[in-house]
Amino acid sequence: MSGILPNWLLPGLAVALPVTGSLVIFRAGHWKHRMTGLAVTGTVLLVTLALTVIMAVTVADGNRIDLVLFPLLPPWPVAFRVDAMGAVFAMTVAGLFALAMMHAVGYLPDDRRQWRFHGFLLASLGCLIGVALAANLLTLLLFYEVFSLLAYPLIVHERKPEAFNAALKYLVYILSGGALVFTGIVLVQHIAGSGTFVAGGMLPDGASDPALIVAWAALMTGFGVKAALMPLHGWVPDVHPAAPSPFSAVLSGVMVAAGVFAILRVLFEIFGAGLLQRLGVLPWLAAFAGFAVIAGAMRAVAEDDLKRRLAYSTISQMAYVSLAASLASQTALAGALVHIVHHAFFKGGLFLCAGLIIATTGVRRISRMRGLGRRMPWTAGTLTLLALAMIGVPPLSGFTGKWVLGSGMAQAGGYAHLAIILAGSLLAALYLWPVVYRIWQTAEEPGPDCGEIPDRKPRQDNRWMLTAVLATGLITILLGLAPRLPGFPLELAETAARTLLGSPAWK
Amino acid sequence: MTAELIDLRPALAVVISLACAGAVFAARENARWRAIWSLSAAGVKFALVWSMLPGALGGAVYSFRVGEVLPGVAFGFRVDALGLFFALVSSTLWVLTTVYALAYMRKSHSLSRFFGYFALCISTTVGIAFAENLFTLFVFYELLTVCTYPLIMHNEDLAARRAGRKYLVYTLSGGGLILAGMAMVYASSGTLSLAQAGILDASAGGATLLVIFVLLIAGFGVKAALMPLHAWLPAAMVAPTPVSALLHAVAVVKAGVFGIIRVIYDVFGADLLRQLGYTDWLAVLAGAVIIIASVKALRQRHIKARLAWSTISQLSYIVLAASLLAPLGTLAAIIHIANQAFSKITMFFVAGVIERGTGKTRVDELAGVGRQMPWTMAAFTLASLSFIGVPLTAGFVTKWYLSLGALQGGREVFVGVMVVSGLLNAAYWLPMVYQAFFRPMPADRKAPAGVSPMMVGPVLICAAYIILLGAGASAPAMPFSLAEAAARFAIELKASVE
Amino acid sequence: MTHWPHWLPLVAALPMVGGVLTPLLFRSRPSLAWAWAVSIASVTTLASSALLLTLVGSGPFSYAVGGWLPDYGIELQFDPVSALISPVCIIGLLSLIFSRRYVERSIDPKKVSFFYALVLVNLGGLNGFMMTGDLFNMFVFMEIFSVSAYALVATAREPIAALAAFKYLLMGALSSLLVLFSAGVVFAMTGTLNIADAASRMDVAGPMPAALALAALATGFAVKAALFPVHFWLPDAHAAAPAPVSAILSALVVKAGVVGMLRTLELFAGAEQLLQPLLTSLVWLGALGALGGALMALVQRDIKLMLAYSTVANIGYIFIGLGLATASAATGAMAHTLNHAVIKSALFLAAGAIIHRTGLRHIDDLRGLARRMPVTSFAMAFALVSLSGVPPMAGFVGKWQIAVGALQAGRPAVLAVMIIAGLIVLAFSVRVINALYFRPPSRISVASATEVPLSMLLPIAILTAGCLGLGMTGQPVLEFVAPVIKNLYGAVP
To answer: How many folded domains does chain A comprise?
Structure first.
């Protein structure tokens, strides 16, 4: 597909386009028709998505695209490198953002302020793609920090008091995390003289262990805040529910994943599996991740607010990836990467459903959702689908990921890890099934019923949201049915894992 | 290695504002001529200083000696990379501050006195930058004190007098300390030249060297607002905003840290100080100041007071970086002269715009200002991000190199200081941004009174510079390369910046 | 023409003769008296410049009056110290020019011609004092300028003037006695009154009479120079006198005391064990004077008193420099003698201008004057800043050299004293500047004041310009006086 555009232009465009688009969209409030603004936004999103798909296909067989921009701080350039892992994440991000935007069109009231939302959303998209395609720690930090700041106006967009409180908490966490990341990056620069990602690790052999461990700890903790690695997760349960639903979907779907993504980059392209083994830090990661899987899931079971339950679920699910990473096994890692993709869509989709439900009926608590199935059949149906996917029922997408993940862990001898994954999945069922059950419950049983609640929004606005929800469901089915198609996540993930753990000593 | 060229430009750059001052004093009440003289002198000086940049990047050093005033002590100019860097920052900012001041001060009194002394201040600042030796530097340093005094006293009310008195007591005492130190340097080494990497050597004796160090650092430390010598700075907030901008960003405080850098690298020299270890203590002090001043900034309710304490904190970044005696640290110290200047002056300009436009001066009165003045507050936000140290802004460049310098110098703890300081900065800037953009305007807020574009323009230009310095740091001929050159001459850059 | 040797005595004789003639010729015509005085002073100034040029060109020279040989006759000599005559004449001339308008208000018209006479005689006496190499002549000329000085103080209309003059006279008489006594002892010891000769013969004498002579001579000149603790005649005298007289007194007459001390050092240069205690005491007393004078100046509210105490402080510096006995300190002291003369005369004349216009002397009354009398106020501000020792102005050069000399001599405490004193001077300077510039007027006479006429303004301006000029040309001056050092201390340290 590189006949149309030179390869090296792709990553640059994929980042620049949404960012410039956002600047344009900020002015859309002055335009005559809403449709114009929507059309522009939509076009930008679709083109970006197309770019990411092209990139994914190009690198599917192990190629790489490199693009070096200007040196930000000599000699560190702002540079992009499209490899399999980055491409698959970028594609996921672009896809989910497109869905979120569609949802937002229906969710947000039609006023001047909606363009602020869309603008910031586009800018965030550009930044996240920048994170995905960053070729060195500095570029990663740059886009990461900017994205973190851009999230603030998105979180508080609806001006609800709980959103401001949650956003403040978010800011404190994220800035502290950013500070730790900065410390770690500076240490890496000092030790290694560079921060470029190199598959298999780039830190020199002679470096002192204490310095390396400190750098590792700083980076893990710093990125771990965004990755909601317990006990650094404190912002998630407040922020994800308080944000407007389209952005919650993004938050849970790809933002936390971005943190995990960064962790993976650091683990395998700064430190490298061999060094990690030598330093003996992987068991620590496993311990925290394992704890997060279980504890997150258990908290999810206890929550009655749907969005909070989903938020805790995100904590738990994303910890799967860290857990897999701690094994440094190729297959496990591939499964983890694929899980990121799948999770983005089904968790994102679940949030979109929740958003639609809340927008239509105002109901947030699961205990009050009886009768929803009759009221909003399509939504409820998709919700059920996504829940099943997350639990891991074949032939939906969740199953593929979990299977690869599990078999990889087994192969690597991480039986404890495997057990935790299984427990987590069990708990997932425990917290998702009641939701499904409740919405399909008939009205004969005692208790509140949401069938009589009048619509809060006109039906036609719900069309956008419904379409987004349905699209998510469709993607989930597709990903589950045809995992091995070229350019599909699984293949990319496998390529990525192979590259990351390139040293032949590791499977 | 370096070519020393005799060139009139350093002297011209100093003289031009002297002439401008004379013309402005003569122009009396004629506002038009006042503006014409001020702006044209600013422009000419700007051009003069920038014209020396290509040569300096190529390694040339311009010098111009006026004559020997005392035995072994000459009065002359010598433009090396460090001096040119400081002069570049000052002359650039002077143009912007002049434009701003012409608009801000339009309805004020005694304007020819104001602008005349304004011009004299910048003349003396450039004199400090281009000083060939400690004596010349001291002359211009004291003259700077003298020339800033009428500006602080401008409002002529009780608060101004108090502030002016405090200012003089502190700065003149500091001058006395410098004089004492200077005399001791001269007695010990026979020269006051700043052209060598250190004119003192260990033969002077430990006690003497320690006394000289303390005297000179404390003397310059007054203007550099090094705690506990800082008390004049928050008090000087009573001056009109362009004066605060000048004091805090362009001239006075930068002269102080410039002096400290010169003392460390050109009077003592990095090698000698490494042996003596005095800079270790200075680094610790600077680190403490960074934190303490930021904590105090948190508690300030007036915008300008908060800016003042932030300045105190930021200046110690420079002192800390210079004390690390590591190449990247020196680089950070030099580059922060520019980064801090542009970021802080943006904030001061914004504070002035808000004050003129809405009459608000307190941090908790900012609700909704972002809606009334979006571009201005956006600039403020950008400056805040720079102080927090977000990548792509100027402040990040400093943070980066300072941290690397700390690691290079084996003082890892200062990375922590940087990080904590960044978070503290977030704690006291972001609430202001939040108030401005995310809080609704109170019902009794009127539309902003006409704020001249001449005030907003400099705000935006300085804000643009923040990005330029942050993102374009390594463009050729950008001041960054000059700072690098300066750092290289200041300390042998054995480890390259790789 | 410039080598005409007779110019040397002329420089002393002309003003004296001219002065004596003034009341005879011009008693009833004050303005003619002024013109006469100015012309005499101008010629004298020209002559002194010629002498200076000769000195620069061909080195020190001497002139034997009446052609008698040195051992028997009066010998005048012109060495770099004597070169001080030139600025003395200039300052004297400028003060005279200034006086024209000033005396209209402050001196009884019938006495004006006497006033000019006294000034001229004083000038002549000073010149003579500085160029003589003979102890007795020094005594004579010293009497001449002292008596004329007492009388000048008394010409002021203020009631306190008479008392101040009397105090001055008493102290002056004491010092004259001491000098005379010392001259006698020296003659007895060495058989000559010529300083150079006596110096070379000094070591044949016993220590006791030498010590006595030294003590007497030093004390006598110390009184004249207003060194602590025998300075207390000075503040009242200088403050009570009319402004031009204050200028002359502070700038010139006390410097004669310094010159006298220099000659004393020359005289006893060979007797190191005698000199040592003297030098040490000079340093101590100078330091005390510097600090004490500065502090006393700080608490004054009357501007002339403030300036008078500042003179005490500066004399202190000069003696510190002389006492430290290092090359840079001594040259600095001599340079400061010149520089302070210029600065202080500028200050007193500016103060005089203010008093002339407004009748006010209290600092608080002077508020807001800068708007009405911009040139005078600027001159005062400029000269005050120069007095504090801010480079690149005149006050800095001497102080720097003395400070460096202190460090070289291993006495850093002196440096601290000078810095502190300098800061105190800055403090009261700022107070004055503040009042002049940054306060609204509080007195009607200030609000309605206008600038003084040119005849008063011009001398002020010239002297103020000199403050800067001397600051920039410190190096040549220091080089100029350097050769004198070896005469002072024997071996140059």
So the answer is: 1
